[in-house]
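User: Before I run my own analysis I want an independent prediction to cross-check against. Here's the chain; please return only the structure tokens and, at the end, one sentence I can use as a sanity check.
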Amino acid sequence: MLTTKDNIFYFIYLHRTGLTVTALSAVLLVWPLIESNPYNLGLSNLIAIYTMVVLGLNLFIGYAGQISLGHAAFFAIGAYGTAIGTTTLGGPAWPVMAAVALIAAIVALAVGLPALKLSGHYLAMATLGFNIVIYTILVQWDTVTGGPSGFSGIPYLSIGSVIFDNEIYFHYLVWSFAVLALLLCLNLVRSGVGRGLAALAEDETAASALGVDIRRAKVKVFVLSAVLASVAGSLFAHCYAFVSPDSFNIFVSVDFVIMVVVGGMGSIWGTLFGTALITLLPEWIEALEAFKDVIHGLILVVILLFLPQGLVTGIVDAVRTKIALRRNHA
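Assistant: Structure tokens:
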């Protein structure tokens, strides 16, 4: 017969995802009351923006079993698209963001249909080439994008009379989007589509034999990841009211992949940890800022050598194994 304590533990286990999201939301709700430093809040907001990109990329890498070194390009499409749409063309911000996300989806579809016939390092090189093309356009088409000097004067977002023109207001906005993206990804991976993607990552032949449309599944998750990156880029542009090509180069794409690997490929919750760690690392080792890319590369190599499933996933698996061994010896 189950005791009250057993029932409580069972309830927590059964609803662990909802309870964890609720706890995260509660922390985020009071965070600006605890941390009043605008700079630290700005870092927190940047983590939220990057989290949206990395969540989509983790679906593509961890669940679809593919690799992309070009997601900063979709991030750029969102940022520059909303900048041009609201500033140059004078459109309303929210409809422009939606329209730009649709454009990013169409571009992802156009790129994904031929590129996703490739796999492994061939696909990585194809997506890397796409990133280089977008970056070159941003730099060279200076009459539209502002060129190397960047694009300024982007208006702040607003809802009614509330203008998101400071770090506290923007915190609530951007983390709302990040939590919604988190919920979307958590529900997706637990659905039939997510199980199909997980099978695809393990063995494409076996997944195909089980009825998974491999090519369609790859394209769908690629388009979804591009839309998340685009929305994140739009929020980035409206947050800083300025964008420049250096925020969307190939090294940024590589950093996104490192965030996925550090957090754990296929670990949605690990995405938050990986994104936070790689975003905050330069702040912790400010004296080594010039060697940031080298340090990130070393972290990636160490993780792949010793914890190929990712830091968070690796630690969780090690703890579970240790607990299981103790139970067996007891």
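Sanity check: The chain has a mean pLDDT of 85.
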